[in-house]
Amino acid sequence: MSLDKREISAILGSSMKDPFTVLGLHNDAAGYSVRTFFPDAVSVEIIDPKTNKVLAVSEKIDASGFFSATFPKAKGVFKYALNIKWPDGSVEKRFDPYSFLPVMSEFSRHIYNEGNHQELYNDLGSHLREIDGISGTVFAVWAPSAQRVSVVGSFNNWDGRIHQMRMLGSSGVWEIFIPGIELGAIYKYEVRKCDGSLILKTDPCGYSQEPFPNHGTIVSDLDSFQWTDDSWMSARSSENLIDRPMSIYEVHLGSWRKAGPNEEGDYLNYSDIAVQLAEYVKDMGFTHIELMPVQEHPFVPSWGYQVGGFYAVNHRFGTPAEFQAFVDYMHSQGIGVLLDWVSGHFPKDAYCLAQFDGTHLYEHSDPREGEHRDWGTLIFNYGRHEVRNFLSANALFWIEKFHVDGLRVDAVASMLYRNYSREEGEWIPNRHGGAEN
To answer: 133: phi > 0 → left, psi -120 to 50 → alpha, else beta; which?
Structure first.
């Protein structure tokens, strides 16, 4: 047997920071072994991925669902796939997530921990990838104090034991590439906190979310949209916009015009809003629109100022690609697009950033620094490099991926002053004794 009881217990208990040291292809004393864990499987065969020829039949070495197949030393490191037989008699070909090397580079992890990873959104979150000719999705999330993080969804029956991620060095970033996960798949992160309890979290860098009450993250693609605003983008980069007159129309997409009478529904989609809003804005003589936050938010009456998904487009009006089309159309009509951008606070909803890894990760632990009592929200801990990086990369994200023309930063005074809306004794002075942050 190539696995001992301690290793099996660690996987079953979901307490490993690197399950790749137990699962996948390993060099054992008796030869090379392929170790897999499928709790509901009847049998597992190791096959040649090109010919589908059976190379070995795995031995079930534990009733919980551990399988192992051993190959002689002469076999060496090799590519393989799996044939998994299920109780209903069906056989499914899969590629083993634990046979792939890390994707996020050591350099990217280093500059992220420094707070300088400007394109963080290309590493964290979920991304469709093809690795060694195999299609799937890479998942990566920052949760440095977690005992374990897993990707869960209908593809693994929401079982956090199946796709346990590995922490990459000391970066606090957990990652896994799961073959076969396609566009539109819904997932969450199952986080085991330091006290051993489990919580489910939406991906902080996910591009799209499910509606209330599930809030699962949806695997999305932002790079396949065919933009037609090349002339606008070229002019934007070459002209001095500061010297040009601007007339800005601020608008909340959810209430500007409705498709029906329902106060909390009957929303127009991004496509319909684009045509109607552009016509109105041009008729009124505005040069730009300023959208109240289009980021995902759980509480509709907040108008988007309590953001639950900083990298996700508001699902109530359509998909990320449909919002890209909204901006593209506005540019075709000669209208600039600005976004209200919230970087001062976030809501306490359990599914998003609050105590993300079981600790005060994105927020201050002391409520005198970490809580807006007026708004019932939490304040970002700007002293953490990774938190500042999360926000600065988010600003660039909307400009790069959605071609927006500028950001209006919300609640600036609340970020600048420690005593903002606080009585004496309810705030902590800076190291010079002042109120400035």
So the answer is: left
Backbone angles phi, psi at 179, to 5 degrees: -60, 145
pLDDT for the residue numbered 72 = 80
- Look at residue 234 and give its three-state secondary structure: helix
Alpha-carbon span 86 to 341, nearest angstrom: 48
d(CA 315, CA 66): 40
pLDDT higher than threshold 60 for residue 1: no
| Band (12; pLDDT cuts 50, 70, 90) | confident
Spatial distance between the Cα atoms of 59 and 391, rounded to a whole number of angstroms? 49
What is the DSSP secondary structure assignment for residue 58, as one 8-state letter? P
Which helix or strand (DSSP H or E) is residue 280 part of? helix 270-284
DSSP string covering 150-218: EEEEGGGTT-TTTSB-EE-TTS-EEEEEEET--TT-EEEEEEE-TTS-EEEE--TT-S-BPPTTT--EE
For 23-172, where are the alpha helices, taking DSSP H only? Answer: 106-114
Closest alpha carbon to 298 in 351, 365, 257: 351
Q: Is residue 140 packed enough to be buried (19+ CB in 10 Å), middle (13-18) or exposed (0-12)?
A: buried
| 265 φ, ψ (degrees, to nearest 5) | -165, -155
Whether 415 and 353 have beta carbons less than 8 Å apart is answered as: no
Give tens-digit pLDDT for 133-190: 999 999 999 999 999 999 999 999 999 999 999 999 999 999 999 999 999 999 999 9
Pairing type for strands 148-153 and 186-192 reads: antiparallel
What angle do helix axes 320-332 and 270-284 make, rounded to 10 degrees?
Answer: 20
Q: State the Cα–Cα distance between residues 409 and 60, nearest whole angstrom.
A: 57
For residue 213, whether the previous peptide bond is cis, meaning omega lies within 30 degrees of 0, is: yes
For 243-272, letters b (16+ CB in 10 Å) and e give eeeeeebebebbebeeeeeeeeeebbbbee
- Pairwise CA distance, residues 377 & 12, whole Å: 36
Identity of the amino acid at 157: N
**Neighbour tally for 237: CB within 10 Å:** 8
Helix (H, G, I), strand (E, B) or coil at 93: strand
Distance CA 229, CA 231 (A): 6
Confidence category of residue 28, pLDDT binned at 50, 70, 90? confident
State how far the Cα of 265 lies from the Cα of 344, in Å rounded to an integer: 28
